[in-house]
Write a structure and sequence with these properties.
The protein is α/β, with parallel strands linked by helices. It has nine helices and 18 strands.
């Protein structure tokens, strides 16, 4: 990742807040690409190779990207652009495509420095832009700054007890913000990160066996799968979020269950709750560090306990806004 960062800096003169899309499969190249972009001072923008062409086109135009990181088997998705030219309105923006597993690119990167590059990035610069689903219109890029990610990392290391465990599983697709909460706390704390491949993510039996064979102790598991996986799971701590937490009857007391809640616009998660504290699946718990959460009425006044209101989130995790 350091070699990639130096290559991006030397070749493309990457500057803070520059957006660099990644169109990569689930592999070590994906992690190298993310870290390489961040180490170069840019902000990464994940693209799923399985996206419809219209969505990929929208992201490339919206980001005004100068360089895109791909692999040999995702490069063909960009052949839609003649000469790798993206048309943004009346403006034409040329972009370069760097294939991380291309033999010549690998050879070039091997000659780059392995030292940590020094950039001018500050805490209020962008770390990543993740696009919303687009169910209510065009997908919108949510701009997240380094300060929010660092705050999330510090909070997740504590709440997920990563000082007590070694092996952390990574389930989510990197185009979803929950991936940020899986990857970064683990690698920044020195844990071992196990990237579940797509075959494992589709088979509970194979996933459980993989977790057992590799002594994986902590992992995010989608809420819809928890009931199916918990009885046979070798995990010691399971995190879920992004949808309603299921009611789990007679669940195993030896597994810690954490319900985490938050929108993409607040850097993944804003609150967390240990399920066994009260067994209440509706409880989203307390705010993470440096975060404030209020239930307010339409006049922005705090409502009494039990009254209906809207949830307001403040703190260092708030995004810069939409791109």
């Amino acid at each position: 990742s350091n070699q990639l960062a130096h290559y991006l800096l030397d070749t493309y003169k990457i500057v803070p807040d520059e957006l660099i899309p990644l169109c990569l499969n689930r592999s070590e190249d994906m992690l190298i690409g993310i870290l390489g972009v961040l180490k170069a001072g840019g902000a990464y923008v994940p693209i799923d190779p399985g996206y419809p062409m219209e969505r990929i086109d929208h992201i490339l135009k919206d980001t005004h990207a100068r360089v895109i990181l791909v692999e040999e088997n995702t490069k063909s998705l960009l052949s839609y652009y003649k000469g790798c030219v993206s048309v943004c309105g009346s403006e034409e923006v040329e972009f370069s495509v760097v294939s991380l597993d291309n033999v010549s690119v690998v050879d070039i990167l091997s000659g780059c420095s392995v030292t940590n590059p020094v950039t001018g990035v500050k805490s209020d610069n962008l770390a990543y832009v993740i696009y919303t689903s687009g169910t209510t219109g065009k997908p919108k890029g949510v701009m997240i700054e380094h300060s929010g990610v660092v705050n999330l990392i510090a909070s997740m290391i504590r709440s997920r007890k990563l000082k007590d465990y070694t092996n952390v599983g990574c389930y989510s697709n990197y185009v979803f913000d929950v991936f940020v909460s899986e990857m970064f706390p683990a690698i920044c704390n020195g844990n071992t990160l196990w990237l579940f491949n797509n075959a494992l993510r589709k088979s509970l039996k194979d996933l459980n066996e993989y977790i057992r064979d590799n002594h994986i102790e902590v992992s995010v598991i989608p809420a819809v799968l928890i009931k199916e996986i918990i009885d046979d799971s070798y995990l010691k701590l399971i995190i879920t979020g992004g949808e309603s937490f299921p009611t789990i009857e007679n669940s195993r007391k030896d597994i810690i269950l954490i319900n985490e809640y938050g929108p993409t616009e607040a850097t993944v998660y804003a609150t967390y709750h240990y399920y066994h504290e009260d067994g209440n699946p509706l409880n989203i718990g307390r705010p993470i560090s440096n975060t404030s959460v209020y239930v307010l009425d339409r006049y922005l006044r705090p409502v009494p306990v039990g009254a209906v209101g809207e949830l307001y989130i403040g703190g260092s995790g708030l995004s810069r806004g939409y791109l």
